[in-house]
Amino acid sequence: MADWIGINRRARRCYGFDEVALVPGDKTVNPNEVDVSWAIGKMKFNIPILAASMDGVVNVKFAIEMGKLGGIAVMNLDGIQTRYENPDEILDQIAEATPEEATKLIQTLYIKPVKEALIAKRIEEIKKHKVPAIVSCIPQNARKFGEIAMEAGCDMFVIQSTVATVRHVATEYKAFDIEKFCKESKVPVMIGNTVSYDVSLELMEAGASAILVGVGPGAACTSRGVLGIGVPQITATVDCAAARDYYFKRKGKYVPIITDGGMRIGGEVCKAVAAGADACMVGSAFAKAFEAPGRGYHWGMATSNANLPRGTRVKVGQAGTLKEILLGPAKVDDGSQNLVGALKTSMGSLGASNIKEMHDVEIIIAHSFQSEGKVFQMSQKIGMGK
Asked: 20 to 30 A Cα–Cα from 9, which one of 65, 225, 287, 324?
């Protein structure tokens, strides 16, 4: 599985979305009859797509709309929504900044401390509309923010960092105890991010209710360039899903795997699920929604880091309503709208009746998959050539 890259050093070949394809099966299923529901513990969801916990994607309004459509939107407790009483004024500033000004401006705006009262207020605003309130923060803030969020009635808590591990070594501060937090939590705890079998297994053993998979693939993330770390999403998902299946076989507890980042279009969501994902977390596709707070812009979670930004602000534009992007009808031909419809149609073509059957479809290595026969689309920058 590994090739020599020099004397006494081998490297494993890994694969991303553009390098693989899904092979149709020996039967087909009516897309209207496939089941795309999934669950985290006792919580069941009709749509296996989550809106990423990024300030250009999710605010209270977006979370409410996403919940009404049957999906999940995760709100970032370390972001604009909990630092400012009127986040719209701040979001206007970010949208109006030039590309040269954007990162520095975001760093400055995120210096203001989080107001703990706003954590409870935002959750209560979401809960008033009888939809799930799901929130996230970094490990350093998890204990304090988690207590406030659970008291306010959040339905799930997400702990998210560039790389998550159970065993964190530090002498300058007391390391966050993931296992203790999960054990004491009143709600399911989703943890990310990771890309490996061993770490996924350790996070499950520590009590994670779901695992986020992906380091650096997001449209606005620059971790791969700044830090040089990450694993392409197909291989990362396959590896982490293998840990899930082993843990289920050994413990009898099924811990969902959520591919997080790198998916812009329906075909990539389909490939992630085929690689073993139970659901997908998407950012840039939803940042294009009219309801998204970013005004057509999207920025990385670590863009605001004071010492080493690992994200940037990208312009994604505004392409349609949240409903069109999630459920259609699609008004574009590039796969960026009706993500659920794309997944259902793909599953039907592959003969998969539900998400778990989709995990067993054949995947092939196909380097020319995106370009084969598409010369006119590529030259005219339409369809798959955009």
From this structure: 225
Q: Split the chain (386 residues) into runs of 10 and give each run's mean pLDDT.
A: 90 95 96 97 94 96 96 96 96 95 93 96 97 96 97 97 92 91 97 96 98 94 92 98 98 98 96 98 96 94 85 93 96 94 98 98 88 74 75
Backbone φ and ψ of 51, nearest 5°: -85, 130
| Closest by CA position to 219, among listed 324, 277, 160, 294 | 294
Enumerate domains of the chain plus CATH numbers: 2-385 (3.20.20.70)
Alpha carbon separation from 168 to 163, 175, 195 (Å, rounded): 10, 6, 16
**Res 372: pLDDT:** 74
Q: CA nearest 138: which of 209, 191, 184? A: 191
For residues 134 and 289, give the distance between their C-alpha atoms in angstroms, rounded to a whole number.
20
Question: pTM of the predicted model, to two decimals?
Answer: 0.94
Q: Which long-range contacts (CB under 8 A, 24 or more apart) does 200-204 make?
A: 200/239, 200/240, 200/243, 200/244, 200/257, 201/243, 201/246, 201/247, 202/165, 202/166, 202/167, 203/164, 203/165, 203/166, 203/178, 204/243, 204/244, 204/247, 204/251, 204/253, 204/255
pLDDT of residue 1: 67
Question: Which has the closest alpha carbon to 296: 66, 69, 96?
Answer: 96
- Give me the pLDDT at residue 301, please: 81
- Alpha carbon distance 287, 325 (integer Å): 10
Put residue 276 in one of left, alpha, beta given phi > 0 → left and psi -120 to 50 → alpha.
left
- CB of 135 closer than 8 Å to CB of 149: yes
Judge whether 55 and 93 are in contact, CB under 8 Å. Answer: no
pLDDT of residue 2: 86
pLDDT number for residue 380 = 79
Sign, CA dihedral 266-57-196-70, equals: negative
Structure-token pair, residue 118: 């706003």
The two tokens of residue 63 are: 């979370």
